[in-house]
Amino acid sequence: MGADMGWVHRLKERLPKALYELMELAYSWIAYRKLLAAAREFQPDVIYERYNLYLLSGAMLKRKLKIPFLLEVNAPLVFERSQHSGGLSLRGLAKWAERRAWRSADFVLPVTNVLAEHVAAYDVPAERIQVIPNGINKAHFAIAPAAAQAKADLGLSDKLVLGFTGFVRDWHGVDRVINWMASAAAPRHVHLLMVGDGPERAALEAQASRLGLSERVRFTGVVHRDEVPSYVAAFDIALQPAVVPYASPLKLMEYLALGKAVIAPNSPNLREVLTDGTNAWLFDASEPLKFEAGLSSLCNDAELRHKLEAGALATIDRLELTWLSNAKRVVALAQRSAVADAPI
Predict the structure, then answer these.
(1) Residue 267's Cα: distance from chain center in Å?
(2) Per the count of CB atoms within 10 A, which of 42, 136, 224, 256 is most buried?
């Protein structure tokens, strides 16, 4: 949860950045040897890997075994790591590794069309780029209680519940929600339910205390995965206050699966799933106070919330945003690759 992760974390803190990055690349050989041993026993038909920077073991195994290699991409990690965590020391090497991994795959599977543009920029042919958004397990969320029961279980029956799930960081903008709750625009019965934890928790709790909102802001801390649907079911308004421009947020899929009125930035990657006024309230993140105005509108318009709830609930089936649908697409792509690679 962002804390000390043991000896690897300590090693990273002590080594020169360039040396650590070289060690990341060198680990590809160790991972390759382990994968090769496993593959000789398991005899796979396809390699499916989630992309990580400097990890080339999947590409190496494809070259050795000559079987299809599908690569899931959740972020352009050269770009992302250049912006965060002190940046990259060996940026040229990192770009080479990213290009090598992406171009080695039979199919690259970015989670949004925006991310697909990053992949295409490395000269990956368009026919080998297949966008597959993140999804949900419908059965997992089918067990969630009705909203009224979920609220009652949490002692929130008389509250209008704003909810957020996941690992909260400063860029998520939850501090804006708390400031808005302290304003005259916010109804007095609004309650903020934060399902999860993260490095920003202490600051947000301190902010709520300063503003006299401690009784109206609740953090659950880390909860078991099986408990998440019961918490999300209690939301009246589901919060996606900010998003990185290429992401396919898992929390968003969960909000939609439970038919919640979503408020989110009007960004291209989210518009691949969300339509303003149909299954979400989309605000212009570049304009001050548009998010807060959206919160006020949603809180004061129950009819609008119900409309967005219905639209959200229909979105999962309409766009087939489930892991089962994703798995079927992956299998079909693997079969296409196997046919293409078959000897004549």
Answers:
(1) 15
(2) 256
57: which residues sit within 8 A by CB, 6+ positions away? 28, 29, 31, 32, 35, 49
3-class secondary structure for 48-92? EEECCCCCCHHHHHHHHHCCCEEEEECCCHHHHHHHCCCCCCCHH
CB proximity list for 309: less than 8 A, separation 6 or greater? 259, 260, 261
17-42 vs 57-65: helix axis angle to the nearest 10?
40
Residues 121 and 144 in one domain: no
Element (H, E) at 218: strand 217-219
Decide if pLDDT at 243 tops 60.
yes
CB 88 within 8 A of CB 94: yes
The Cα 144–Cα 140 span in angstroms is 8
Which tokens go with 28?
């590809």
In this structure, the answer to whether residues 116 and 18 fall within a common structural domain is yes
Range(s) of the domain holding residue 294: 138-320
Do 263 and 242 fall into the same domain? yes
Is the per-residue pLDDT at 6 higher than 80?
A: no
Nearest in space to 312 (alpha carbons), one of 241, 253, 265, 247: 253
pLDDT band at 11 (very low <50, low <70, confident <90, very high): confident
165 and 235 housed in the same domain: yes
The structural domain count of the chain equals: 2
**What DSSP state is assigned to residue 263?**
E
For residues 230 and 22, give the distance between their C-alpha atoms in angstroms, rounded to a whole number. Answer: 44
Instruction: Give the type of residue at 197.
Output: D
Q: Distances from the Cα of 208 to the Cαs of 103, 181, 196, 213, 253, in angstroms?
A: 48, 9, 17, 5, 28
| Together in a domain, 203 and 262 | yes
3-7, 146-150, 238-242, 296-300: least confidently modelled range? 3-7
Residue at 251: amino acid letter: K
Burial (CB count within 10 angstroms: exposed 0-12, middle 13-18, buried 19+), residue 4: exposed
Please provide the average confidence, as pLDDT, over all residues in the chain.
Answer: 94
